[in-house]
Amino acid sequence: MNARPFLKATGLTVPGRLDGISFELARGSTLAILGPSGSGKTTLLRLLAGFEAVQSGSIEIDGELVSTPGRIAVPPERRGLAFAFQEPALMPHLDAIGNVHLGVRESKPARIAAALQALSDVGLPGFEQRRIWELSGGEAQRIQLARTLAFESRLLLLDEPFASVDRMCRADLLSRIGDTIRRRAGRGIAAIVTHDPADALELSDVTMVLKSGRVVAYGAFDRIAAGDFGEWPALFLAAGFAGRELA
Fold first, then answer.
1. Which residues, 6 or more positions from 208, have their beta carbon under 8 angstroms from its beta carbon?
2. How many CA atoms lie within 13 A of 216 on its CB side?
3. pLDDT in tens, 193-244
4. pTM of the full structure
5. Which of 126, 152, 178 is at the close of a domain?
6. Could you give the number of structural domains in the chain?
């Protein structure tokens, strides 16, 4: 007998943005979501988080129906959610470590320990007392990523988490946090929106490619790259490795 999927999305539709998206993920899965700009990647992540309602379709998390047409049955704060936005959402009155342990619910010593580990994981040891206005764009994005990783969640959702990180730091960051993301996904799932196929290759065990709000490929990265789901998804990944975006 097949185990029940941890996350089940059925027919997710938002007019003009998503059209009938369906997929399932087992507990412990890490999903990379790729596609051209405007293909619906961020919209899909927001639906999983519970920030938006679908017009049609449904979402189940661990057997519980959390979203139905026009209704968010379980709000984000009850989904066990950790979410990293495209633009870092940091508290300017807190220092770096204060921002990182903001969402951690354990006792203060445990919060600080988790925050210190998360800062190390993203390559920013020694940044504990930095003020937010002292950070570069890439450092601010890594602080937000550290906060997301420090929080024990069932849904780890990352929206372009490396967009402001320069190429050399990005490669180092990917090697640092891969195991951390997979460990966090063990309590549920992780999903990462990205434009860069290198992120999917390094971090995910399942890859989804969207085009015009529809799934055009879903499965193992190497199968998509080999053309098992058609020519366009394979060309899209190849263009991404070359630093181009295929429309």
1. 23, 31, 32, 33, 34, 215, 217, 218
2. 21
3. 998 899 999 899 999 999 999 999 999 999 999 999 999 999 999 998 887 8
4. 0.90
5. 152
6. 2
